Each structure stands twice: as C-alpha cells, then as structure tokens.
Amino acid sequence: MKKAVAIVSGGMDSSLTAAIAREEGYQIVAVHFSYGQRTEKRELQAFREISQWLGAERYEIELPFFNTIGASALIDRTMAVPTDGIKPGIPITYVPFRNGIFLSIATAIAEKEGAEAIYIGVVEEDSSGYPDCRETFIEAMERAINLGTRDETQITIKTPLIHLKKEEIVSRALQLNLPLHLTWSCYQGEEEACGVCDSCRLRLKGFQLAGVEDPLPYKRRGER
User: Fold this and answer.
1) What is the DSSP secondary structure assignment for residue 120, as one 8-state letter?
2) What does R_g of the chain's alpha carbons equal in angstroms?
3) Model pLDDT for residues 11-60, shown as the tens digit of each residue
4) How far is CA 191 from CA 45, 117, 198, 211, in A?
5) Contact 38, 206 (CB under 8 A)
6) In the chain, what are the domain boundaries?
7) For the domain bounded by 3-210, which CATH number is listed?
8) Are 28 and 52 in contact (CB under 8 A)?
9) pLDDT class of 223 with cuts at 50, 70, 90
10) What is the pTM of this model?
C-alpha cells in the first residue's frame, strides 16, 4: 500500500488533510511536532486521538530549539496572543519558518518510510497571513526536497485545503465524518478554547458559515 506522511498538529485543518490522504488511498504516517507552543499538551492529545481514528503510524517529534529562538507569541510567554480580531499583515503568532522546518523533518521521515507524498494542512486564502502557508512557498519546498534527497526519491507535497475557505473545510470534514470534537485549534487555552485568538475566530467563523455548531467548549465566542 502506498504511504504518505501527514503533518498533524491536532487542529481541524491538519486532521482533515490526513483524512483526505487516507481517502485517497494512502497508508498514513502521522507526524506531530511539540515545539514549546502554549497548547502543546492539548495538541498532542488531539494528535494521538486523531491518529488512532486514522489508524496511522505515529511519530512524535520534539523541537525544543524553538524556545531558544522565541519571536512568536505562540512560544514566548512575555508576548500576548492577540485577541482583538484578525488584522492585515503577519501576526506575532507567526513562528519563523515553522512549516519549512516541519517539511524538512517530514521529508526525512518520508524517505526513510518510502512514502511518496507529504500532506500538510496549509490554507492560503483564509489563514492568519503566515508566509509559509503560501502556495509559492510549498512549490519551492517541493523542488528543494527532491533536489536534496536520493535520486530515486520523488516526493510530492500535497495541500488539499490550500484554496479552501474555513466553511468549506468544515463541510468537507463533516463529509468525511472527521471527529471534530477531538481536534483542537486554540492558540492559548487547553481546558476551554479561548474563542478570541485568530485561530479560534477563523474556526468559529467557518462553523457559523457552514451552518453547524462547533462541538468544542469555548470560554467565549468572539467576532472576527
């Protein structure tokens, strides 16, 4: 059976991406990164539960050097996570080159596992404005990893959600019976989702426009 590496944070987008990979006939090798993010424990729990639902082999990778670098409100506790609505530009929750680093490690795993694809749940049009979610970046990374691996290694980076809106993502997740109650998207809460960080706002907007109720517990439900 053909294999694909799926980068799974435990959030809705990455979990759906892995579910799509399974639907497309791949045996899933799920990879999760713990890098000192505020909701590290809750994301890991979500990853393990989603991986079990997928029947996936698991890799859990720790990247403590992100704490040394800092420069992001997801990691540096002296920086407040924005809760006043999504603004234009790159927010302070951007983790420098995170997806590039994730894709590099996923490539090493893919080459070792004999996987032919890497799935990553980046969303370009309705994301928080992260530069490493852009399609041009993903295309450049695919060229680079195939130059930097064995000649017989040919890996495709697949981004099935990249041009979708959040409401389309919610609808697709429901079509695939993704257990959305197991996923976690909040940037700062682990018992309850805060409801007002950028990630919560985007998720709640998606559920609202899809016409369904988000099953996660929220401390409050902010407006975008």
Assistant:
1) -
2) 17
3) 999 999 999 999 999 999 999 999 999 999 999 999 999 999 999 999 99
4) 12, 34, 18, 25
5) no
6) 3-210
7) 3.40.50.620
8) no
9) low
10) 0.96
